[in-house]
């Protein structure tokens, strides 16, 4: 659900609008960029981080059961191979904002860390994340400094500014070409465009794997082993440290949001805010959210908690299912709403899908052992059919 909150703009508007409000094809409907700032502080990057944390925990949980049955890491490798194929189908045929390819690639590397001590996983994960954020800072904030500040001349002069402006225009032109294909209903043309123009995006996912995904997976493994998700840590401690992490990290992110707005919400300014300055304060928010969700929503008989837990147990189906449901909503061969909705209207679409997720997941899992795609993934991993009905 949080992933959709982060991605809804990029589902219904060009990918450039994900960070940059001027990328909208219609007026964004967001006076003074208040909604942009709220999403930036509360959602962007945090939901992907939480998803990654839980994926790492899930990897270790899966291997615990595999080891108990005498299986080894080869079983997890097969599981990741099928995830890679699911991600490739998602990326090329449904929506290029896929994250599963990155998870699969990162997961193959994280396999070698499964038997580390929990303390080692936690320390390496935290240090790896901090190092990745520092490493990414020049690449993500440098273009802003080199093109839109008083340091531009010193950092490369007019040639660098011109090159960066050409890069920005190329991204805008590509977004317009893709938008035209989606709006026209030319699905084959859209798929061809993604394959021809965006296959190189997979290289960015590999970069993201080393700077963010693998470290967060390791942290997720360690926190799972230390009892974060199953009552091994007292609820009072979860609440205390959860709120400290969320408040401290969010306060710093608010300052970054104000700075980004003050710079005029420029193309490279929003890139610097999103990808350059926010990763470090994002980490305590991610871990804090995991602690707070565990403390508040896992109580037995809690109506909303039960439904969110069910949605999480069918997370794979809900993640890919969201993209499948929204494909006919926005493409021209369906309702054709791509580029037509402003930010508030896109949030209404998001809320409708949230309701759908909460309505179907719990009744389904009361009748079936797994979500539909979870069942298929399990069958492919083990190479046999499992019973799905309870």
Automatic annotation (TrEMBL):
| Recorded superkingdom | Bacteria
Kindly indicate whether the keyword Membrane belongs to this entry: yes
Q: Which residue ranges does the record assign to the DUF418 domain?
A: 223-384
Q: Any idea which UniProt keywords this protein has? A: Membrane, Transmembrane, Transmembrane helix
Residues crossing the lipid bilayer are: 49-68, 80-110, 122-141, 202-224, 236-261, 281-304, 316-338, 344-361
Q: Which PANTHER family match?
A: INNER MEMBRANE PROTEIN
- Protein name, entry field: DUF418 domain-containing protein
């Amino acid at each position: 659900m949080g992933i959709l909150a982060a991605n809804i703009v990029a589902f219904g508007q060009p990918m450039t609008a994900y960070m940059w409000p001027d990328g909208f094809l219609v007026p964004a409907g967001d006076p003074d960029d208040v909604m942009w700032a709220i999403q930036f502080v509360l959602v962007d990057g945090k939901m992907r981080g939480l998803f990654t944390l839980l994926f790492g925990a899930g990897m270790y949980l899966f291997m615990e059961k595999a080891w108990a049955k005498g299986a080894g890491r080869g079983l997890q490798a097969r599981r990741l191979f099928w995830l890679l194929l699911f991600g490739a189908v998602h990326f090329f045929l449904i929506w290029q904002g896929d994250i599963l390819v990155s998870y699969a690639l990162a997961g193959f590397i994280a396999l070698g860390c499964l038997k580390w001590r929990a303390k080692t996983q936690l320390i390496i994960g935290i240090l790896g994340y901090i190092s990745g954020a520092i490493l990414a800072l020049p690449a993500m904030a440098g273009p802003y400094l080199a093109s839109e500040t008083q340091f531009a001349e010193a950092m490369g002069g007019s040639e660098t500014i011109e090159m960066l402006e050409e890069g920005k225009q190329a991204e805008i032109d590509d977004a317009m070409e893709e938008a035209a294909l989606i709006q026209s209903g030319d699905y084959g043309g859209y798929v061809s465009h993604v394959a021809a123009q965006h296959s190189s995006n997979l290289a960015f996912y590999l970069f993201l794997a080393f700077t963010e995904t693998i470290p967060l997976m390791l942290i997720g493994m360690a926190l799972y082993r230390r009892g974060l998700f199953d009552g091994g840590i007292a609820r009072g401690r979860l609440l205390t440290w959860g709120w400290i992490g969320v408040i401290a990290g969010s306060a710093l992110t608010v300052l970054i949001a104000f700075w980004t707005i003050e710079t005029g919400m420029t193309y490279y300014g929003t890139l610097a805010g999103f990808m350059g300055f926010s990763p470090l304060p994002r980490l305590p928010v991610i871990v804090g959210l995991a602690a707070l969700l565990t403390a508040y929503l896992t109580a037995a008989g809690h109506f909303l908690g039960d439904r969110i837990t069910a949605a999480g147990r069918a997370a794979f189906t809900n993640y890919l299912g969201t993209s499948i449901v929204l494909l006919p909503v926005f493409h021209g061969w369906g309702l054709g709403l791509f580029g037509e909705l402003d930010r508030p209207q896109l949030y209404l679409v998001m809320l409708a899908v949230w309701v759908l997720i909460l309505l179907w997941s719990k009744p389904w899992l009361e009748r079936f052992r797994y979500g539909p795609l979870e069942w298929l993934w399990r069958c492919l991993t083990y190479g046999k059919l499992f019973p799905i009905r309870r």
